[in-house]
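Tutorial sheet, problem 5. The two components below are modelled jointly, 285 residues in total.
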Amino acid sequence: MWTAGRLWRVLMAVAAIAALAALFGPADRWLGVDIGATGASVFVLAMAAAITWLATKPGEVFPEDWSLSERRGWVGLLVTALILLTFGKFLWLLSHVDPVPERIGELPGRNLISLLVVLGIAWGVCARVLARGAGPVGEDERDLRMRYGADQAGDLALALAVVNGVVLLVVMPRELLAWWLEPLVLANLLVGLLIFRNFVEHVVLVARYALARR
Amino acid sequence: MSDIAISNRIRVLRAARGVTQEQLGSACGVTRQTIIALEAQKYAPSLELAFKLSLALGATLDEVFQFEEKK
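Model answer (C-alpha coordinates):
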Protein backbone atom coordinates (compact mmCIF):
# COMPACT_ATOMS: atom_id res chain seq x y z
CA MET A 1 0.00 0.00 0.00
CA TRP A 2 1.44 3.35 -1.07
CA THR A 3 0.70 5.77 1.75
CA ALA A 4 1.21 9.51 1.28
CA GLY A 5 4.21 9.47 3.62
CA ARG A 6 5.90 6.67 1.66
CA LEU A 7 5.23 8.42 -1.67
CA TRP A 8 6.73 11.61 -0.26
CA ARG A 9 9.89 9.75 0.83
CA VAL A 10 10.16 8.17 -2.64
CA LEU A 11 9.77 11.61 -4.25
CA MET A 12 12.51 13.03 -2.01
CA ALA A 13 14.79 10.06 -2.79
CA VAL A 14 14.21 10.58 -6.55
CA ALA A 15 14.98 14.31 -6.14
CA ALA A 16 18.17 13.54 -4.19
CA ILE A 17 19.40 10.95 -6.73
CA ALA A 18 18.56 13.33 -9.61
CA ALA A 19 20.46 16.17 -7.88
CA LEU A 20 23.49 13.90 -7.37
CA ALA A 21 23.31 12.80 -11.03
CA ALA A 22 23.13 16.45 -12.13
CA LEU A 23 26.09 17.39 -9.94
CA PHE A 24 28.36 14.38 -10.19
CA GLY A 25 27.17 12.55 -13.33
CA PRO A 26 29.82 11.56 -15.89
CA ALA A 27 30.70 14.09 -18.57
CA ASP A 28 30.22 11.45 -21.31
CA ARG A 29 26.86 10.04 -22.38
CA TRP A 30 25.86 6.70 -20.85
CA LEU A 31 23.85 4.43 -23.23
CA GLY A 32 23.17 7.58 -25.24
CA VAL A 33 21.75 9.44 -22.24
CA ASP A 34 23.23 12.69 -20.90
CA ILE A 35 23.13 11.83 -17.18
CA GLY A 36 23.80 15.39 -16.00
CA ALA A 37 21.07 17.03 -18.10
CA THR A 38 18.56 14.22 -17.36
CA GLY A 39 19.30 14.47 -13.63
CA ALA A 40 18.79 18.25 -13.70
CA SER A 41 15.45 17.87 -15.52
CA VAL A 42 14.20 15.14 -13.17
CA PHE A 43 15.29 17.24 -10.19
CA VAL A 44 13.35 20.30 -11.37
CA LEU A 45 10.25 18.12 -12.02
CA ALA A 46 10.54 16.47 -8.58
CA MET A 47 10.87 19.88 -6.92
CA ALA A 48 7.82 21.17 -8.79
CA ALA A 49 5.83 18.10 -7.69
CA ALA A 50 7.00 18.51 -4.09
CA ILE A 51 6.03 22.20 -3.98
CA THR A 52 2.62 21.44 -5.49
CA TRP A 53 2.10 18.68 -2.91
CA LEU A 54 3.14 20.99 -0.08
CA ALA A 55 0.77 23.68 -1.34
CA THR A 56 -2.25 21.41 -1.63
CA LYS A 57 -1.86 18.87 1.19
CA PRO A 58 0.79 19.99 3.72
CA GLY A 59 -0.71 17.68 6.38
CA GLU A 60 0.24 14.62 4.31
CA VAL A 61 3.89 15.62 4.10
CA PHE A 62 4.77 16.54 7.68
CA PRO A 63 3.54 15.09 10.99
CA GLU A 64 0.96 17.34 12.65
CA ASP A 65 3.09 17.89 15.76
CA TRP A 66 5.76 19.60 13.63
CA SER A 67 5.44 23.40 13.82
CA LEU A 68 5.83 25.72 10.85
CA SER A 69 9.34 26.58 12.05
CA GLU A 70 10.34 22.89 12.18
CA ARG A 71 8.86 22.23 8.74
CA ARG A 72 10.75 25.21 7.36
CA GLY A 73 13.85 23.89 9.11
CA TRP A 74 13.65 20.56 7.26
CA VAL A 75 13.11 22.26 3.90
CA GLY A 76 16.03 24.59 4.70
CA LEU A 77 18.23 21.64 5.66
CA LEU A 78 17.54 19.86 2.36
CA VAL A 79 18.11 23.00 0.29
CA THR A 80 21.28 24.08 2.13
CA ALA A 81 22.67 20.53 1.82
CA LEU A 82 22.09 20.68 -1.95
CA ILE A 83 23.56 24.20 -2.13
CA LEU A 84 26.62 22.99 -0.20
CA LEU A 85 27.05 20.03 -2.60
CA THR A 86 26.61 22.31 -5.62
CA PHE A 87 29.13 24.72 -4.18
CA GLY A 88 31.61 21.89 -3.54
CA LYS A 89 31.27 20.77 -7.15
CA PHE A 90 31.76 24.37 -8.31
CA LEU A 91 35.00 24.67 -6.30
CA TRP A 92 36.18 21.33 -7.70
CA LEU A 93 35.59 22.62 -11.25
CA LEU A 94 37.38 25.85 -10.38
CA SER A 95 40.38 23.91 -9.08
CA HIS A 96 40.77 22.34 -12.54
CA VAL A 97 40.92 25.66 -14.39
CA ASP A 98 44.46 26.90 -14.94
CA PRO A 99 45.06 29.79 -14.61
CA VAL A 100 42.31 30.85 -12.21
CA PRO A 101 39.95 33.28 -14.01
CA GLU A 102 40.24 36.93 -13.05
CA ARG A 103 36.70 37.95 -13.96
CA ILE A 104 33.38 36.48 -12.78
CA GLY A 105 32.24 36.03 -16.40
CA GLU A 106 35.08 33.59 -17.00
CA LEU A 107 34.18 31.28 -14.12
CA PRO A 108 33.38 27.62 -15.01
CA GLY A 109 30.15 25.78 -14.18
CA ARG A 110 27.54 28.31 -15.26
CA ASN A 111 24.94 25.51 -15.13
CA LEU A 112 25.77 25.09 -11.44
CA ILE A 113 25.13 28.78 -10.83
CA SER A 114 21.75 28.34 -12.57
CA LEU A 115 21.06 25.37 -10.28
CA LEU A 116 21.89 27.53 -7.25
CA VAL A 117 19.42 30.15 -8.46
CA VAL A 118 16.72 27.47 -8.98
CA LEU A 119 17.38 26.13 -5.45
CA GLY A 120 17.12 29.62 -3.99
CA ILE A 121 13.81 30.26 -5.75
CA ALA A 122 12.47 26.81 -4.72
CA TRP A 123 13.44 27.54 -1.10
CA GLY A 124 11.57 30.85 -1.13
CA VAL A 125 8.47 29.31 -2.75
CA CYS A 126 8.47 26.39 -0.25
CA ALA A 127 8.71 28.79 2.71
CA ARG A 128 5.73 30.79 1.43
CA VAL A 129 3.69 27.68 0.62
CA LEU A 130 4.33 26.24 4.09
CA ALA A 131 3.24 29.49 5.76
CA ARG A 132 -0.13 29.24 3.95
CA GLY A 133 -0.85 25.90 5.61
CA ALA A 134 0.08 27.07 9.11
CA GLY A 135 -2.44 27.86 11.83
CA PRO A 136 -3.34 31.35 13.12
CA VAL A 137 -0.01 31.60 14.98
CA GLY A 138 3.06 31.11 12.82
CA GLU A 139 5.87 31.13 15.37
CA ASP A 140 5.92 31.33 19.14
CA GLU A 141 8.34 31.36 22.08
CA ARG A 142 9.18 27.65 21.72
CA ASP A 143 10.18 28.15 18.09
CA LEU A 144 12.21 31.24 18.98
CA ARG A 145 14.08 29.28 21.67
CA MET A 146 14.85 26.55 19.16
CA ARG A 147 15.99 29.08 16.57
CA TYR A 148 18.15 30.92 19.10
CA GLY A 149 20.04 27.72 19.98
CA ALA A 150 20.48 26.85 16.29
CA ASP A 151 21.70 30.40 15.55
CA GLN A 152 24.31 30.07 18.28
CA ALA A 153 25.49 26.74 16.88
CA GLY A 154 25.75 28.29 13.40
CA ASP A 155 27.80 31.20 14.78
CA LEU A 156 30.07 28.78 16.65
CA ALA A 157 30.61 26.72 13.47
CA LEU A 158 31.46 29.89 11.55
CA ALA A 159 33.90 31.04 14.25
CA LEU A 160 35.61 27.62 14.30
CA ALA A 161 35.89 27.62 10.50
CA VAL A 162 37.44 31.12 10.55
CA VAL A 163 39.92 30.10 13.28
CA ASN A 164 40.75 27.00 11.24
CA GLY A 165 41.40 29.23 8.20
CA VAL A 166 43.64 31.52 10.24
CA VAL A 167 45.67 28.56 11.53
CA LEU A 168 46.07 27.19 7.99
CA LEU A 169 47.22 30.62 6.74
CA VAL A 170 49.85 30.75 9.45
CA VAL A 171 51.05 27.14 9.27
CA MET A 172 50.93 26.23 5.57
CA PRO A 173 53.80 27.05 3.19
CA ARG A 174 53.14 30.04 0.92
CA GLU A 175 53.37 28.00 -2.32
CA LEU A 176 50.57 25.66 -1.14
CA LEU A 177 48.38 28.65 -0.33
CA ALA A 178 48.85 30.35 -3.71
CA TRP A 179 45.69 28.86 -5.30
CA TRP A 180 43.51 29.45 -2.23
CA LEU A 181 44.55 33.11 -2.12
CA GLU A 182 43.54 33.91 -5.71
CA PRO A 183 40.92 36.71 -5.42
CA LEU A 184 38.05 34.79 -7.07
CA VAL A 185 38.82 31.58 -5.15
CA LEU A 186 39.00 33.49 -1.88
CA ALA A 187 35.73 35.28 -2.66
CA ASN A 188 34.02 31.93 -3.32
CA LEU A 189 35.47 30.43 -0.15
CA LEU A 190 33.99 33.28 1.90
CA VAL A 191 30.58 32.63 0.32
CA GLY A 192 31.10 28.93 1.08
CA LEU A 193 31.69 29.75 4.74
CA LEU A 194 28.33 31.50 4.92
CA ILE A 195 26.60 28.52 3.25
CA PHE A 196 28.33 26.16 5.73
CA ARG A 197 27.17 28.28 8.67
CA ASN A 198 23.60 28.17 7.37
CA PHE A 199 23.77 24.40 6.87
CA VAL A 200 24.99 23.82 10.45
CA GLU A 201 22.22 26.08 11.75
CA HIS A 202 19.56 23.99 9.99
CA VAL A 203 21.09 20.68 11.13
CA VAL A 204 21.02 21.86 14.74
CA LEU A 205 17.52 23.31 14.40
CA VAL A 206 15.90 20.06 13.22
CA ALA A 207 17.99 18.07 15.74
CA ARG A 208 16.77 20.27 18.62
CA TYR A 209 13.13 19.75 17.61
CA ALA A 210 13.66 16.00 17.29
CA LEU A 211 15.43 15.78 20.67
CA ALA A 212 12.71 17.86 22.36
CA ARG A 213 10.14 15.23 21.41
CA ARG A 214 12.09 12.31 22.94
CA MET B 1 13.72 16.62 28.00
CA SER B 2 12.41 14.21 30.62
CA ASP B 3 14.21 16.17 33.36
CA ILE B 4 11.66 19.00 33.27
CA ALA B 5 10.66 19.68 36.85
CA ILE B 6 7.54 21.62 35.92
CA SER B 7 4.54 19.45 35.17
CA ASN B 8 1.10 20.63 34.15
CA ARG B 9 -2.56 19.62 33.98
CA ILE B 10 -3.32 21.44 30.75
CA ARG B 11 -4.74 18.37 28.99
CA VAL B 12 -7.15 17.61 31.85
CA LEU B 13 -8.29 21.21 32.30
CA ARG B 14 -8.65 21.76 28.55
CA ALA B 15 -10.74 18.62 28.14
CA ALA B 16 -12.94 19.63 31.09
CA ARG B 17 -13.65 22.96 29.40
CA GLY B 18 -14.19 21.47 25.95
CA VAL B 19 -11.48 23.57 24.33
CA THR B 20 -9.42 22.27 21.39
CA GLN B 21 -5.61 22.55 21.26
CA GLU B 22 -5.96 24.96 18.34
CA GLN B 23 -8.35 27.22 20.27
CA LEU B 24 -6.18 27.22 23.39
CA GLY B 25 -3.09 27.97 21.30
CA SER B 26 -4.81 30.87 19.55
CA ALA B 27 -6.03 32.28 22.87
CA CYS B 28 -2.48 32.26 24.23
CA GLY B 29 -0.67 33.29 21.03
CA VAL B 30 1.16 29.99 20.56
CA THR B 31 1.02 27.25 17.95
CA ARG B 32 -0.94 24.02 18.36
CA GLN B 33 2.40 22.19 18.34
CA THR B 34 3.47 24.04 21.49
CA ILE B 35 0.24 22.99 23.23
CA ILE B 36 0.98 19.40 22.13
CA ALA B 37 4.51 19.68 23.58
CA LEU B 38 3.18 21.19 26.81
CA GLU B 39 0.57 18.48 27.27
CA ALA B 40 3.22 15.82 26.68
CA GLN B 41 5.29 17.48 29.47
CA LYS B 42 8.06 18.10 26.95
CA TYR B 43 8.21 21.87 27.25
CA ALA B 44 8.53 24.28 30.16
CA PRO B 45 6.78 27.55 29.22
CA SER B 46 7.91 31.07 30.00
CA LEU B 47 6.26 32.78 32.96
CA GLU B 48 4.25 34.97 30.58
CA LEU B 49 2.89 31.96 28.69
CA ALA B 50 2.15 30.16 31.97
CA PHE B 51 -0.04 33.09 33.08
CA LYS B 52 -1.76 33.27 29.69
CA LEU B 53 -2.54 29.53 29.83
CA SER B 54 -3.92 29.83 33.36
CA LEU B 55 -6.14 32.74 32.33
CA ALA B 56 -7.35 30.95 29.19
CA LEU B 57 -8.18 27.83 31.21
CA GLY B 58 -9.87 29.85 33.95
CA ALA B 59 -7.64 28.39 36.66
CA THR B 60 -4.93 29.62 38.97
CA LEU B 61 -1.26 29.10 38.21
CA ASP B 62 -1.06 26.52 41.01
CA GLU B 63 -3.93 24.53 39.54
CA VAL B 64 -2.30 24.37 36.11
CA PHE B 65 1.39 23.96 36.97
CA GLN B 66 3.25 21.97 39.60
CA PHE B 67 6.91 22.26 40.44
CA GLU B 68 8.89 19.32 41.77
CA GLU B 69 12.37 20.01 43.00
CA LYS B 70 14.71 17.36 41.59
CA LYS B 71 17.36 16.09 43.95
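Marking note: The beta strands of chain B are 6-8, 65-67. Full credit if you identified this.
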